[in-house]
Every structure is written in C-alpha cells, then in structure tokens.
From TrEMBL, chains A, B:
Organism superkingdom: Bacteria
Pfam families: ABM
ABM domain ranges (all copies): 4-92
A molecular function GO annotation: monooxygenase activity
Organism, as annotated: Paenibacillus piri
Entry keyword Oxidoreductase: yes
Key words, A-Z: Monooxygenase, Oxidoreductase
UniProt cross-references to InterPro entries, sorted A to Z: ABM_dom, Dimeric_a/b-barrel
Protein name: Antibiotic biosynthesis monooxygenase
Amino acid sequence: MSKFGMYVKFTAHAGQRDALAKLLLESAESANAFEECELYIVNISDTEPETVWVTEVWSNEAAHDASLGLDETKAAIQRAMPLIAGVEPIKLQPIGGKGL
Amino acid sequence: MSKFGMYVKFTAHAGQRDALAKLLLESAESANAFEECELYIVNISDTEPETVWVTEVWSNEAAHDASLGLDETKAAIQRAMPLIAGVEPIKLQPIGGKGL
C-alpha cells in the first residue's frame, strides 16, 4: 500500500502562532502512540510570521483518516480552532528518499 | 543551532515528471553520505501531474548551503535542468515533532 503524506499550512490569528505551534507539538507527542504515523514535524517560517507548516507521513491514507476519528484528535482540534485563521493541506504520495 | 528545512516544489516539463522523480531519488541516495542531511523525501502529487515535492531537513542551514557547492550536487542539477519548468522553494524552521 502506498504511503500517504501531507504538508498542512496553518495560518494563525495575529499573535497566536506560537500558541498554535505548541498545540501542534502536543499533537506530535500524541502521534508517538501511532506506529503508522511515521513523521509529524512542526515547522515555523522566517518569512510568514503567522504560518505553521506540519509535515506528515503515514504508512497509508486509511491510518491517517482513522486518526481523525479518535476522541483525542477531535479534542486537539477543538483546542486549536480558536487560534486558526486558515488551513491549506497539500496531499502527497511519498515515493522514497532518505528518512522514509 | 537551528535545524533547517525546505519544501521544494519542482514542476516538470510535460511528461517528464517520472524522469525527474527518478533523478531526485538518486540525489536522495547521495544524501545518505551526509550525516547533516536528516530527511530528503521525494513525493509526487495525485492532483498535480507535473509536480514533484521534496521535503528536506538539515541539521543546520550552513550544511545545506555547503551541499550545493559540491561537484556531485552541481552535476545532479545539470542532469535535472532539462526536465524542470519551475522550482519554488519554501524555507522552514523545523521546531520539533515525531521523526525529527
């Protein structure tokens, strides 16, 4: 089965980027429990002060979709929602490389 | 020192995506020799048929910059150039998460 990847661009409300990044790092911590979540990296941008990018790689798309249905994920989304002005996902199919 | 990351969006000339992805996978293979290159993942897109995204994480920006000066890197860029219609890099500062 193909691996599944995403770059997710979160735009925070003004002044809320660091609070949002902290919540996303907590989600990354939770992702340690999921073997099928291979990467969940939180990035900030030097040039876009309200942006947080999350790099995700999953063993398959079904595992990613299943994670969205978990109570823990839903609660994390609820906590983050007030900080978020916009979300733009880019879906990817990782095909190889170093660290995969 | 801060880690350094990039998403690099390569747009291939029509029909050249798979050839470009193959060359980028060879670059990923070369990156195995660089301890400071932590991730170099090649991705294709289900929705953009000429796009290849590369996810890079380096221990620091200087290591990334130094890699661009190597003869091997310059030769790889020369081989890829005829296949490439455009390159759009997004610079990132990875701050944490799973797999970092």
